[in-house]
Amino acid sequence: MDRQERWEDLYRREFPRVYRAVAAVLRDDNSALDAVHEAFAEGLRRPPPDDVNLAGWLFRVAVRHARRADRRYRRVLAAQMRFTVSHTPDDFHTVLDRIEVDQLLRTLTERQRGIVVAQFYLGLDRDAIAQLFAIRPGTVAATLAQAKARMRMEANHAPSKP
Amino acid sequence: MLPQSLETIFERDLDQLPLPDADRWVPKEKRDLVPVAAVVAFAIFLMVGLMTVAGMRASSVLASPPVRPTSSGGRLIGPLPNEYRNAEFGYNLTVPAWLRVSTLPPANATAKGLLHSERFTGRSAEQERALVAAGPTAIPSWDLVIEVWQRDAFSAEQWAVQRDGCAAGCALGSTVIHGTSAVTAVWTESTGTTVHAFYFERGPNILVVRYAVGSEADRPQDVTPELLDQVVRSIGLV
């Protein structure tokens, strides 16, 4: 199996988990799909140094790409140009509105969401998250503590789900 | 209070998020090149044979455009498309047999930062010469132009707006073609020609694909906006 085939195999295997994680952070399915596609393409061009935690690598590259893309789009919007993006049918947002996790995540910043999703959904430990986001483990711990406190507060105030 | 652990809640909820349709994210299987090459070789062999039988000179195979859709016994028969590959700049396209690569130099051949340019046209060599004689045209209508530029740290959007023709009234957008993101731009030139452009960031370079929809009178046979869009969307970047 050559490098491209191996990478495609990994992509097929990890896509559902990575896509959902990115979509939860970005809270948008189209942006998440573009971002994960971009991460996959970057992996083909410049593969990660080793095979450890490839899902985390895809997640991090996708989130980084989405941030860059978001900045670029805002610049164009600021230039008052007409901007059109096609959207797929909206059952993604219906589910997102329904699930409890989104109620919690929407109270966080995008950076906090990235770290929280990396830990609680992708199962990465603090050192791995620190490495992926290029921050210190202490910063990860502090961010998680703040995020959890905020989510608990939200859970206490939110009406209980049936 | 949260009744369950955060891990449980995250898994339970996020696993409910629907995935996109498989054709939007599953990488396409690699094509088996041997059967494709055999089919193409057989088609060429058959075409040359038929022309010889019809008393045509073999050199006329090089005439352009070579073959077109035709009707036989009330059925529409389309010639096999060509798989076009540019190894140097890492892209490939599926091109209908009635489009060919123009041999005329591009109007902007000496532009700074232009690394590569080629144009697919449905015009005959004679029609092309007449077009050039009428005056230089950066984007001849109804042709498909592919260019590779050094992008000098410009993003695709910046390139469209600042280096290409996407000015006031231009519609910027984005698309994903075979897993690769592209910025799109559509604008209308003063001549009334509508340009459709696609910008792919490729490391230090940018790959630009454009086609221009012009007047019906200039439209080469069997070249339509839908066909040109289909060719653009066949692009594979390697």
Characterise this structure:
The complex is a heterodimer of chains A (162) and B (238). Chain A is an all-alpha fold. Chain A has 8 helices and 1 strand, in the order αααβααααα. In chain A, helix 1 runs antiparallel to helix 2 and helix 1 packs across helix 3. Chain B has 238 residues and is an alpha+beta fold. Chain B has 2 domains: 62 residues, no CATH class; 158 residues, Protein Transport Mog1p, Chain A, CATH 3.40.1000. Helices cover 23% and strands 29% of the residues of chain B. Chain B is built from 5 helices and 12 strands. In chain B, the strands form 3 sheets. In chain B, strands 5-6-7-11-10-9-8 form a 7-stranded antiparallel β-sheet, sandwiched between helices. About 7% of the residues of chain B have low confidence. Classes of the chains: A mainly alpha (162), B alpha+beta (238).
Question: In one word, what is the shape of chain B?
Answer: elongated
Number of strands of chain B: 12
CATH architecture of chain A: Up-down Bundle
Protein structure class of chain B: alpha+beta
Mean pLDDT of chain B: 77
> Looking at this structure, what is the CATH superfamily of chain A?
PhyR, sigma-like (SL) domain
- C-alpha-based Rg of chain B, rounded: 22 Å
How many domain regions of chain A?
Answer: 1
CATH third-tier fold name of chain A: Butyryl-CoA Dehydrogenase, subunit A, domain 3
CATH superfamily heading of the largest domain in chain B: Mog1/PsbP, alpha/beta/alpha sandwich
Give the SSE order of chain B as H and E letters.
HHEEEEEEHEHEEEEHE
- Write the element-wise H/E pattern of chain A from the N-terminal end onward: HHHEHHHHH
Largest interface: A-B, 53 and 38 residues
The name of the CATH topology of the largest domain in chain B is Protein Transport Mog1p, Chain A
Q: Order of strands across the widest beta sheet of chain B? A: 5-6-7-11-10-9-8
- Measured by DSSP, the beta-strand proportion of chain B falls in 25-35%
